[in-house]
User: Fold Transcription regulator hth gntr from Trichococcus palustris.
Amino acid sequence: MEEYIEDVIRLTDLSQNKPLNQIVFEGLRLAIIKGIIPVGERINEKEYALRMNISRTPIREALRRIEDEGLVEYIPNYGTVVKKVTVADAKEIYDIREALEIMATTNAMNIMATEEFDELEALLAKTEKANNEDDIDLVIQCFSEFNSLIYHFSRMPRLESIVKKLKDYVARFRDISLADYPRREEALLEHYYILNSMKKKDYEQVALTVREHLRRSERFVVEELERRESAADSEKADLDETPL
Assistant:
């Protein structure tokens, strides 16, 4: 636990101007989704409460909410343990994203002002420059900002609110996908295609380009998750065969 608990505490910034229960929930949830707390690890309420200098109640309430999302499970007579983010999880998130992003993008294109299209164009130019300089963190940040702007320009605040609940999953999958240079190149072209289709106000083309972009990303992420699961299974099998 010592190896990662300080990272968890940093994510759970108690100085935020939010209710304590919400801060603890968001911090633990993000730590699990990002893989900071290892899969299979038991979350010791007492230890976390002690290290954060808070009572066990907000920890317990946060874990109940996180369990509702399927990220942890309670094992009787043992405690709450972290479950892995699976291929099925990724496919579900991408299916949800596809529906929401097509809705947001097609709505945005019909009401955006010229300067808002220019803002997206400038952001893609910044992304391209960062990619040419192999600045992966900035590329990821720019793609995230591009998506956030489209949701904002759609003028659909309830849709934005729904998307925010998925942002931690999306960030993890984006990190996996964009770590690969060829995939970053493809993703950049796909974003240009999306923007050009929006400028033409071509609903069918926008829906197609958004769908294809997300499906390519999904295929890459699923393949990587399957590779990691296979590697973990092989490692476990090797350990099981190691004589005591």
Q: What stands out?
A: DSSP finds eleven helices and three strands in the chain.
